[in-house]
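Working notes for the structural subgroup meeting. M.R. asked for a predicted model of this chain before we commit to crystallization trials. I am recording the input and output together here so anyone reviewing the notebook later can reproduce the run.

Input as submitted:
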Amino acid sequence: MRLGEALVASGHITESQLEKALAAQLIYGGHLGTCLIELGYVDEETLGGLLSRVYDVSYARRELLDDIQRPVLAALSQESVEKHMTIPFNLVKRTLQVAMVNPGHVPSLDELYFVSGYRIEPWVSPEVRIFQAMERYYQVPRRTRYIALARSLDEKKPAERTAKRRKTLEAGMSVAAAGTAEPVVTLPPLVSIASDREGGEIAPRAARPAATHQPAAGQNGLEARLARAAEDLCRAEEAGLAVKIAMDFVAQDAARCVLFGVKGSEAFIKDVRGLVVDAVTAHRIRFAVTTEPLLTLLSGEQYYRGPATDPKHAPFFDSLKIEPPKEILLLPIHRHDRLAALLYADGGAQAAIRGETEGFLRVMRKLTLALDLVEVKQRVRSS
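Returned structure, recorded in token form:
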């Protein structure tokens, strides 16, 4: 069961509130839980408990991330922490306990094992707390949205937070004696689940077994392609070229792809591959992202990849003058905490998309960074 469904089923929010939160997530990005807290529909503890139940892992409360030991932090690099949105907070023998936004993402858990050398025990924590800890311990800067939300949450019940922290310490948290070959921090038992500016520019259980495989040849090929795209994006001097580089990457694995720019809540075509769309048609194809039926397939997720066979999706494909494809990919792209673009891709009428979803996600993240870099270069030149 997904988080939104679990909250509705448990009576914490209504269907109407979920729809509003999903619309806010599409426009502003981030985790659905972040939007629910911002809208005032759930509090942090309720969200943590539901996340714990949905992912079937323990809830890493804010107090557990308050004073993490240096040897624990050293188990993961800044690059790994930022890539997988995770914070290591405890080390018990050969098991590294980590707080994550998405503890159900198996590839992340495998890679964390590979880079750390420890068995990984995933816990879940709200996105706002992960970002707060990433900045505190790894100097990964937060965006204004998450700074404001964390401050709001921390100002609500400071006395309660202090009391919880004291209780945690009094429960017997201790560091192994000096001279021990491996630092060990003992924490209380596992927590019970019962207890960006304008657009237009473009569950595993507690301990994962050790991964034993090396990256496959296909993965190595993806890394090489991403590296080449990254170098080209770094050299891009204007936004249109950056978009072209990213779409060239996507078009290698998708028969047809469209990059829709988004301004306000209206989407419009910015770049097309594999389709014949003249200027008049391109100008005509516009839709509201908050009401387009196809986008309901995202349903609070970072992306959607799969079939689109519901009759209500037909007008979208009719506008592009194509038959409903076998498989589609929908990927929202956010800049400065706001929806800036939407990637649509498919494998054609009868074929699936060839590329790995990870490749599409990563090249679009690189595109957003490249667009930021282009803006910085332009400001430097004009200053």
